[in-house]
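Why Phage holin family protein? Reviewers of the renewal asked for a concrete example.
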Amino acid sequence: MGDPRQDVSNASVGDLVREVADDLTALVRQEIALAKAETKDEVAKAGKAGGAFGGAGIAGWLALLFLSLALMYGLDALMPIGWAALIVGVLWAAGAAALAAYGRTKVKQVNPVPTRTVETVKEDVRYVKNREAR
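Here is what the prediction returned.
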């Protein structure tokens, strides 16, 4: 952007309008770039949280499968294979709980609002207002 202390007393209206348009174009481009960067970071966080929830879903399904098999074999004849399936099922349930807890903490870290962009836009509005007041 141009120097805010620049002497414009000899500038034509067309030059001033062109300078303001150039400044606004540059400003909008910078704000869009900042918003893209902030949004990309937040989407990455959300993707990791979604992956953790997906893993928790698979682990939960496997827990249900193995616990069901364990119950089936255990009630059928209390065969050793049933107890083995029970142990595997409990391990899968613990894995599902751990993944769900991890996903929950990641979801809490996601901020969908590009806060830096909002702040810089507010600063830009103040700058333009101060420039117009001169």
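The chain has two domains: 13-78, 82-133. This is the kind of structural detail the renewal will allow us to pursue systematically.
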